[in-house]
Design a protein that fits this description.
The chain is α+β, with helices and mostly antiparallel strands. The chain is built from 15 helices and 13 strands.
């Protein structure tokens, strides 16, 4: 499938576009990085994720996808679908390194870049036609430069609105480029399944299907008042999207609201198990490293536990506990101390299936107040010097090179939570 932006196709030149928005999404990112670093894996059914029986697939090469393997699938299921697959653990620090190079390429095309995750972002290319030509030419230039700088391929969708650009990039995979001009948005959207829209998950899809709405066109033609009465504000929002109205701009000043690390254990753990404490220490250190890299600190720590009490249908109870500190921190020892305190408040009869830490209520590091007294300032300076030393070792040798105490945890999959 190909969509051109030439005027012969009735789509208009770039000057007629109210906005030129690209959605760039790396193809099978984690798996592609592994194949880049290990050429012997190219062309093979490669699956990245946790290797334990509760592991989760985080990325699969297109060779593995041909067998039905998908991200977020349990590793055990992936083994059944693709027994000849090559399973490798994830390397989040490597993926983050490559992601920074990709982001630099995006920012060489426009300063207006809104990252959604390590491997995808929106770019506002409005007004760049003198530099890169038409939207179609800009898309090809972007793909070439990403490949030249990283050796990886990116799929790109370009449209006047964010929603359509994201749908196009997904449809263009792998290694494709689709461009849709302003005059054809409704024509493009109408026949698509309604779950192509943002905000239509499994539950909403079931509700829409139950009332006879199967395509985006069905939703666009539905009475707005009836949709609002049936689905509330979500119905009004989805109707706007279905009619090709998406006023959301690309937001270069988008900020993370929280950071998180979690993993599922190969076997259920008691609350007093050393492996559980070790995992929380590892998560606390990983979060602190990410906070310092982004020059932010967090005031609130949330402990997340999935209890080993099946509710049926593959579901388990989720327990969260939060604590807000007097001052924000980027120190792993402090984050872990709070997490372990929250753990101590949980009933000891529980067994744990998953454990994670999230930090939020963020502020810039340069806005953090110094302690009032000399002893506080001295302690803060000592922690800062230790953390700087930890960061230097980590950046050079990786996260496994050095740690505090028992900070080791085998993750079910590489994790990074961006919200």
């Amino acid at each position: 499938m190909g969509i051109s932006d030439s005027s012969n196709a009735g789509m208009g030149g770039s000057a007629a576009w109210p906005a030129v928005i690209a959605h760039a999404d790396m193809d099978a990112f984690y798996a592609s990085v592994e194949q880049l670093d290990r050429p012997e894996l190219r062309g093979k059914a490669l699956i990245v994720g946790g290797s334990g029986r509760r592991g989760v697939v985080t990325s699969a090469s297109y060779e593995a996808r041909a067998f039905g393997v998908r991200a977020a699938m349990p590793t055990a299921q992936a083994h059944k679908l693709c027994p000849q697959g090559i399973f490798v653990p994830g390397r989040m620090e490597r993926y983050a390194e490559v992601s920074r190079r990709i982001r630099a390429v995006f920012e060489s095309f426009t300063p207006v870049v809104e990252p959604l995750s390590l491997d995808e972002a929106f770019l506002d290319l409005t007004g760049t036609q003198r530099l890169f030509g038409s939207p179609l030419q800009a898309g090809w230039a972007l793909k070439r430069e990403v490949y030249h700088q990283t050796g990886l391929v990116v799929s790109v969708g370009i449209a006047p609105i964010k929603m359509a650009a994201k749908i196009l990039s997904d449809m263009s995979k792998p290694d494709g480029l689709l461009v849709l001009g302003p005059g054809l948005i409704r024509q493009f959207l109408d026949p698509l399944p309604v779950d192509r829209l943002w905000g239509v998950g499994r539950v909403t899809l079931e509700r829409l299907t139950a009332v006879g709405i199967a395509t985006i066109g069905d939703l666009a033609r539905a009475d707005p008042g009836w949709l609002a009465g049936r689905f509330g504000s979500l119905g009004t929002h989805l109707a706007e999207l279905a009619n090709g109205r998406d006023p959301r701009p690309v937001m270069p000043d988008w900020q993370r609201k929280s950071y998180g690390e979690e993993n599922t254990f190969a076997r259920d753990l008691a609350l007093e198990a050393p492996a559980l404490k070790s995992t929380l220490i590892a998560h606390g250190e990983a979060l602190a490293h990410r906070l310092r890299a982004d020059r932010v600190r967090a005031r609130t720590v949330t402990l997340k536990l999935k209890l080993a009490r099946p509710l049926g249908g593959g579901r388990f109870p989720l327990l969260t506990r939060s604590f807000s500190m007097r001052g924000a921190t980027d120190d792993g020892a402090e984050i872990t101390r709070v997490a372990l305190y929250l753990l101590s408040q949980v009933g000891h009869e529980e067994k744990i299936r998953l454990a994670g830490i999230q930090v939020h209520n963020l502020e810039r590091s340069d806005s953090a107040q110094l302690g009032l007294f000399g002893a506080e300032r001295a302690a803060a300076s000592k922690h800062a010097r230790l953390n700087q030393a930890l960061d230097k070792v980590t950046e050079r040798f990786g996260h496994s090179a050095i740690s505090r105490g028992m900070a080791r945890a085998e993750k079910a999959a590489p994790t990074t939570r961006i919200k």
